[in-house]
Amino acid sequence: MTKLERLKEELVTANRILAREGVVDSFGHVSARHPDNPGRFLLSRARAPDCIEESDIMEFTLEGEPIDAGGRAPYLERFIHGGLYEARADVFSVVHNHSPSVIPFGVTGKKLKPLLHMCASCGHEVPIWDSQDKFGDTTLLVSDMAMGRDLAKHMGANPTTLMRGHGATVVGRSVRHAVFVSVYLEVGAKLQMQAMQMGEIKFLTKGEVDKIVARVNDYTLNRAWENWARRAGREMQKQPA
Amino acid sequence: MTKLERLKEELVTANRILAREGVVDSFGHVSARHPDNPGRFLLSRARAPDCIEESDIMEFTLEGEPIDAGGRAPYLERFIHGGLYEARADVFSVVHNHSPSVIPFGVTGKKLKPLLHMCASCGHEVPIWDSQDKFGDTTLLVSDMAMGRDLAKHMGANPTTLMRGHGATVVGRSVRHAVFVSVYLEVGAKLQMQAMQMGEIKFLTKGEVDKIVARVNDYTLNRAWENWARRAGREMQKQPA
Amino acid sequence: MTKLERLKEELVTANRILAREGVVDSFGHVSARHPDNPGRFLLSRARAPDCIEESDIMEFTLEGEPIDAGGRAPYLERFIHGGLYEARADVFSVVHNHSPSVIPFGVTGKKLKPLLHMCASCGHEVPIWDSQDKFGDTTLLVSDMAMGRDLAKHMGANPTTLMRGHGATVVGRSVRHAVFVSVYLEVGAKLQMQAMQMGEIKFLTKGEVDKIVARVNDYTLNRAWENWARRAGREMQKQPA
Amino acid sequence: MTKLERLKEELVTANRILAREGVVDSFGHVSARHPDNPGRFLLSRARAPDCIEESDIMEFTLEGEPIDAGGRAPYLERFIHGGLYEARADVFSVVHNHSPSVIPFGVTGKKLKPLLHMCASCGHEVPIWDSQDKFGDTTLLVSDMAMGRDLAKHMGANPTTLMRGHGATVVGRSVRHAVFVSVYLEVGAKLQMQAMQMGEIKFLTKGEVDKIVARVNDYTLNRAWENWARRAGREMQKQPA
User: Pick the catalytic residue: A10, A21, A77, A86?
Assistant: First the structure.
């Protein structure tokens, strides 16, 4: 199998995992930067994540133009992915989701912060992007590069951002990393909602977050991936190069 | 297959989806206007949604009279459906449910409003119909046309209404549309309950709701339907004409 | 099949349903009055509800003495069942459970009341029995007839009672009825917990409860039973006489 | 089968049960003291609990040194287990988890206390260990014997302890006992979070806790184990000696 074929398989598994773990429902998507061409990225045609197969994975320029669409309709919101790959050379995978527990944070403006070691990867700061600020009344969908670039700019160097009334976007250094951060962003948000009802929360310190983030290696990611892939009915594969 | 046969299949799938997605339990129902005769509608005999088969689908006049019952007992609450098809020519499908997260809104009188783009289809306003107001102490069931018509009148041109101590009713321009609105009404209600505990909520603006509602097309509905049908163990079919 | 054999099958299905619907976990039990001898009742040997088979069903006197135990160890708390069959000729089935959503009501003393038509069967009043009041520090288990009789006395003519720090007990005119009331007691408790956080609750009126309770007939019970039996992997059978 | 082989099978089942019951996700672990050598313990190689097989179970000294690793990578946090086996001769099994409902207690400092008879086994007092107190900014992981011993010292003679921002650790007199306490610690934490929103809680009295703890025997543990093993797709076995 080529590097490209392996990465397409990885994306299919990622979609199935995100669906199985409740991070996406019939909507939401995950992409990867092209392994041979950093000016391209891979993303499924517009289809529910749990239904996606290898032949659904399309190739796009960073501006969201499909290469050889072959009749496949793309997701409208491919500009989220393009905007982030364009802005950040450190990003190799992007997840966009409507992960249920993050929504209440986006619409109330309450800051989501890591309180559990597994959730440190959401970073010191989870900004909230509000499409209303710059684009006024829209469908809230990131439907062109102007919106995609604004989202990327607002996100800055952070690993995650919420989107008011819409969901969240997460980046990673690999598909497994972006999926890991996405799953534990949901876990952390649910825990924080519960803890907020109980009293003052002792969040992780800045130093703890830094130490944990530095330690999340492929070993950690693969332990989770093996478990999630199995739950999603997919075979565990070596991580693509 | 005739248009009628396709629509019966569609209704079976709709019932299974609503059960699988937690919108109905052993009770609740979904109907469609007859494809050849706008003065009739199709609805299952009285049976739990997840058990329904094609042969359970009966035909009714808009006043709830069964055509050729063939020994099948109808749902008592068929008048919800009749009342709405009679009042609104724009309605081609009706879902009645006891969707868990909407109940607390109905009994506290708190207004359910869209805070997530996926939930805009519940409309600007979700009225609450209280059978007590006009009919006093009843079983709360919509058991005749007088009640069905009163519900339809109270609902007005809105896509959804809550029913105090009872559940919700949702209409759509197709079966897939009514199912979509029903699923995301439940999603939105759960999110709003959580967000209300956290602080002031920034709901979607009126302009955002209008723009999103205008964009929910068959494409969107089919993406969700493919996923839900698969989860419910039903084949994805083309949408009936 | 004899009436007794049918009823044993019904009890197995009831156990599986209660487990599948989250009303019991590895503990909790359901019994039926003997169809031929009102001075006896049927209850499984001490085993987790989801594991129970026909051969596990034992026969007991109303004082909890096993008839022909055949080496099978009984539940310690069989006195809950005996106490209720002894006190109330209207009772043909008893469910005892640790249904999760009812526990917070028992330990806070907040009154559980019906707010949804499906939940009216829990009755106008759900008393809370506290074993501490009469028996002081115990394991909280109803471990002899003195405790079983005290519980029955406290419950009075009500269909349900909570037990502080322990769970709930529900009675019915048939196995299907007791299971139905148990499932919707859990549903109603969860909804009430949510609604209490949102504001003042409009509960069902006394008249509404009476009207609904009068209407819950075998037809209603069988619709739910068909669905629940299927989910629990058991065949739908005619209700035993 | 030897005693050692039986115990390895038991540990595999324990891992699968903890995963199935939601006490562990892709992380967390359960160990047992070696049946023939109290100076050793058994623990899986670093792998997600639901994926573990007999050949993954490794042997360690109480200081966490692997005996005959055979290329298998150990869990970093094996020192939690070593520290507890070293400090307490009464401990034969240890579970470490990130059980979701206990996390909010750890980060808010609210005391988790038994309110349900099934949960009495968490003990009169659930201390909260904060790695920050003695070790400052770390990854929060118990990554050497100094931390393992400090945790064991803080836990004292209690059956459970929370770990701030991290999870919980539970000990037992057998694998089944430690699993039982872990499952009901999660159940109790969830119930207490709900009850705290409703009003003043009447917790179990000290006398009630003592009486219940004294009564939790192998009989109780086996009833739950049969049910949980079946749900996890594992055969029910006799408890290892």
Answer: A77
